[in-house]
Specification:
Layout (H helix, E strand, L loop, with lengths): L1 H19 L1 E6 L5 E6 L4 E3 L5 H8 L7 E5 L1 H5 L1 H10 L8 E2 L9 H6 L4 E5 L3 H6 L2 H7 L3 E5 L5 H15 L3 H24 L7 E5 L12 E3 L4 H7 L3 E2 L9 E3 L2 H7 L3 E6 L20 H11 L3 H4 L2 H5 L2 E5 L9 H11 L9 H12 L9 E3 H4 L2
Parallel strand pairs: 3-4, 3-6, 4-5, 6-7, 8-10, 8-12, 12-13
Antiparallel strand pairs: 1-2, 9-11, 13-14
Length: 378
């Protein structure tokens, strides 16, 4: 009888587990319809930086169903990787994969992990389609779902959060995340709307200078991503005047003629892949003195020396990884303080991000995501 009882209990448990999952159809950010059992039991993150969203949805249980991830977090954001590996030491052994467009993703190794779903970023779509990757993955029983927090975040970020909420069985948490994000952005946009006619300072945002090659100028943002954040914060992104894509280039002469009121560079800890090491390492737990020194060095390039923003110390650095994570409410608040210090004197982006960590994330907050030349004088 005890044996029969145990068998019956096991069958009941299996039945309950089967009932808790259900076949569903997800529409990803490309409009593709993907059939998958929800919640997914085995998830392969095609970009490890998606952990910033997954962790907000699952908290302490975020790695329960993740069977592997891309190697980008440890390469491009090692400070965040350190935070998660300190809190979850087992992630050191989590299988890592390369990037499909670079040709260093092993489908065979992925298949061996038996994932239910592989999440990919939208910018990989062309390379994925050309390689016939989806057909091969589907034949192996792996659903492929596209997310986007980078190419057109205004259009796709919330949908991507919802998709991850479905995959992780955390739909309620996803809604709470979206509501929090909207409310924090509205603190800025509503106040600007109520302020009436205000002067919008001209802003130049340089994308990740000082990583590799010459310290030339001027990779920047069009009307999306950081360009959109600057506009929502009450600035005018000069990149949008000439660039229609997410990213593009200004030449130094265009920058000098535009003579922006503020210069912002994006930075992160790129020590694992930089051959130049002149980037501004802002991010989790960054050293503000060292970051400010690197920022000051970048402003010594010929295109910048004559700018009013540089002469006045209105030069800033922002954590580059905000560009691919729906935490943009934090830089929007910080940009607003830089652009309109009197109007937003009471806003504290550091407090906001700390509160977000306490409400949503399983890792402790450490400041260091922004720095300005004006903070430390000359």
């Amino acid at each position: 009888m005890p044996i029969l009882k145990n068998v019956l209990l096991a069958l009941a448990a299996a039945a309950m587990a089967a009932a808790s999952a259900f076949a569903a159809e997800i529409t990803d950010v490309t409009g593709r319809k993907v059939e998958i059992e929800l919640p997914a039991k085995r998830i392969l993150l095609g970009e490890a930086r998606q952990i910033h969203v997954a962790a907000a949805l699952k908290g302490e249980h975020v790695f329960d169903t993740i069977v592997g991830w891309r190697d980008d977090l440890i390469k491009k954001d090692p400070d965040s990787y350190a935070g998660y590996s300190e809190r979850f030491p087992a992630v050191e052994k989590l299988p890592r994969f390369g990037y499909i467009p670079s040709g260093d993703f092993s489908l065979e190794a992925a298949i061996a992990l038996k994932p239910d779903v592989l999440t990919l970023n939208l910018e990989a779509e062309k390379a994925v389609e050309e390689a016939g990757f989806i057909e091969k993955a589907t034949a192996a029983g792996i659903a492929v779902v596209y997310l986007d927090f980078r190419v057109d975040p205004a259009k796709n970020s919330e949908r991507s959060i919802e998709i991850l909420g479905q995959l992780f069985g955390a739909e309620t948490r996803a809604k709470e995340f979206i509501d929090y994000r909207r409310a924090q952005i509205a603190i800025v946009t509503d106040r600007l709307a109520n302020a009436g006619a205000i002067e919008r300072p001209k802003v130049f945002i340089e994308r990740s200078p000082g990583i590799t090659g010459e310290t030339a100028c001027c990779r920047t943002f069009g009307p999306a991503n950081f360009g959109e954040m600057a506009e929502k914060a009450g600035g005018h992104n000069i990149g949008s005047d000439v660039i229609t894509a997410t990213f593009g280039d200004l030449n130094p002469e265009q920058l000098v003629v535009a003579n922006p009121d503020h210069v912002i560079v994006t930075g992160s800890n790129w020590s694992a892949e930089s051959d130049l090491n002149q980037f501004v390492a802002v991010g989790r737990g960054a050293d503000p003195t060292a970051a400010r020194e690197k920022l000051r060095g970048l402003m010594q390039r010929p295109a910048f020396a004559s700018l009013d923003a540089v002469k006045a110390g209105r030069v800033h650095a922002v954590w580059h990884q905000f560009y691919g994570v729906p935490y943009e409410f934090v830089p929007i608040q910080q940009f607003a303080k830089w652009f309109h210090p009197d109007l937003f004197a009471d806003i504290d982006p550091d407090r906001t991000f700390r509160e977000f960590h306490e409400k949503f994330l399983p890792v402790a907050y450490r400041p260091g995501y922004f720095v300005s030349l004006s903070d430390g004088g000359e």
